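Predict the assembly for these two chains.
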Amino acid sequence: MKMSHRSLPDKTIERLSQYRRNLLICLSQGKHHIFSHEIALIHHITPVQVRRDLMLIGYSGTLRKGYDVKELIDLIGLILDTEEGLKVAIVGIGNLGRSLIGYFSGKRSKLNIVAGFDNNPDKIGKIYAGVHCYSSERMQEIIVEEEISIAIITVPADNAAIVAERLVMAGIKGILNFSPKPLNVPPHVYLEEIDMITSLEKVAYYVKKQL
Amino acid sequence: MKMSHRSLPDKTIERLSQYRRNLLICLSQGKHHIFSHEIALIHHITPVQVRRDLMLIGYSGTLRKGYDVKELIDLIGLILDTEEGLKVAIVGIGNLGRSLIGYFSGKRSKLNIVAGFDNNPDKIGKIYAGVHCYSSERMQEIIVEEEISIAIITVPADNAAIVAERLVMAGIKGILNFSPKPLNVPPHVYLEEIDMITSLEKVAYYVKKQL
């Protein structure tokens, strides 16, 4: 089993994460082997694409039985996860922030939300689904102390830039931004943005075209 | 002003939505003209990209003053919006569903969430941020009656497929899916998927590569 994933394409990373999620379901249903065309069917892509992705991570199945589900899950884990896991903070404990804490909790054992931050005195000191909410003023201190490397931003657009700046200063290495404001981060910080309003407007555009 | 947006690229649609959001901010700050390099700076892309997008929708500024902000907002509106707006339903009034109702409310006047659906008897009949929660059993009836064309799915993965099927049967034309399950919809229904777990795992992958 060769490990040649030095520079996997962005889209392959996304698909590996998605494959794993469905492979875990397969395994829980007692399915131990799977063919590329079965994986392809679940994800609405071609079997060639699946085989190409898995070849990129140095994995090949057997012609007769396909891929070993457990082995493949473990291999994807070696690529996506760190052994000890990574710690995540969430900045902005509004409705969206709270729902994300609930959403992510327990879904990925290797990614743990360990702290929340907010300015609202009513929220500071409270526990949300097991996650302690700290004052935003303590951001740097807690991030360093807890060795948090990833932050999720759910603050309003106006505050997003200053929050991102402070996260970077505190040593955060990766940011998932839900605020509808494009952020500026230095090249050593990985930024992923989820733009929910644009996604909805895109759906609307295609619906409109069909009217 | 030529309108030649028959088949705009997917990415152009996304950027038009993002441009408009920031142009609205500019306008509210009293800025009435903007250059392509200023738009480019906000969105971290090249001025060439901005000019190409705006050329695709048949708009060009003047060399001296740049683009007219108000005109550009209106033109993007002509492309993305329908005159009377589109109605949106949200299926799954859990934490995520409720936070999305709050999040989208008032953000886009042309896209209105007019109904929520859930199975939970405690939620049925309640109003969440102005949105009535109906029993999922009434999905078809309400969608037809209210002429709802877009649905947001926030139900757990296990229920997503059956919900999508029922939405399609009810005549929904576009779906924004937040459930971590790839959905199958017929070609005439536009599907956009937001996979939050994969986005977070992708951030973690790039953070790990730097450790």
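The CA atoms of residues 144 and 170 of chain B lie 7 Å apart. Chain B touches chain A through 58 residues (CB under 8 Å).
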